[in-house]
Input
Amino acid sequence: MEKLIDNVKKSFEKKFGRKPLLLASPGRINLIGEHTDYNEGFVLPGATDRAVIFAVAPRDDRRCRFYSLDFDQDYATDLDHLHKSEWRWPDYLQGVLDQFLKGGYAIRGLDLAFGGNVPIGGGMSSSAAVEGGLAFAVNHLFGLNLDLLSLALLAQRAENEFVGLRCGIMDMYANLHGQPGKVMKIDCRHLVHEYYPFDRSELRVIISDTGVRRELASSEYNVRRRQCEEGVSLLRRYYPEIKSLRDVSLQMLEEHRAEFDPVVWKRCAYVVGENERVDLACQDLVRSDFISFGERMKESHRGLRDEYEVSSPELNLLVNSALKIPGVLGSRMMGAGFGGCTISLVEAGAVEEFRSRVSADYRRETGREPAIHVVRIEAGTRILEG
Ligand code: GLA
Output
């Protein structure tokens, strides 16, 4: 991390010839609670030690100059001409600035360099790390005094409106509210959270990356959202007080099963079950019952694979391979699905076997090497120097 920070800082100084503000903006993991955020349900994410590093300084005019170390590309624009670029990365930055302008905040242009070690498009929310990080930086540089929740909502709108993906609030929320050694149970309806300790020395969190990238926009993500909405409108005929799947019980679903399209029913049953699992998993954490916690991760994966149908052969392969290893307590796909990564809860002593066996299985079946990252739960977006 020190080397990365130094690289970003030096690149900035070389390009722009002055001293920047330095920030770290982490990628997130999610222990359990997948595809529940946009149904006003519960999630259990944490920020990690994988981060995007920003070097940024305000300008006196409205020009914006960006440099991406990861792509080695420059992009220049100004606040009065923000528009979608031919590349994707400038859009995450422009989207955030666009939201500050729409909110009527007095901001000026910026010089900015950034680079990171969050796998790009790999399911750890590299895009939310870029958006949350810039929102935090702009708020600080121009003294806007917005709180973290407002910044998370602003970053989400940037993704929804400028980038064009209807993502939920989890990624930006976790990026901004992370604390070392703690995960947070977010209530995605009321936008409040509770921290739970997650810093056991005998356990590790392992992220295994399939290397398969699938753009959310072109994926089934929006289809799933619509199916959930369809389930809600059907049940609302009988229970007018229902606003989202958060308000639905398995019993309600069972009672009206015959009226449902069977696919829509499965989608809804998964979400209702997953919300309950998040609750139970938090109780496991309070009791330090990681065996039970791991079982819930496995159930979550089965639901995502069979009911919500957002897993993929590569993700299933990684999960199955992990679960054969003694000392792996739980494993499941993480994030939107189809590609990206899995998350596994592993006893410290089993990490080496995990690396070698999961890599070997994946290589044998797909001919590719999976990237395997042992991650720590760290603080959310923060200033490093400046
Ligand atoms: C993506 C979205 C999140 C969430 C997850 C699935 O990461 O950005 O808002 O919906 O998928 O849990």
In short: The chain has two domains: 2-198+378-385, 203-375. The radius of gyration is 21 Å. Residues 37 and 170 are 6 Å apart (CA to CA).
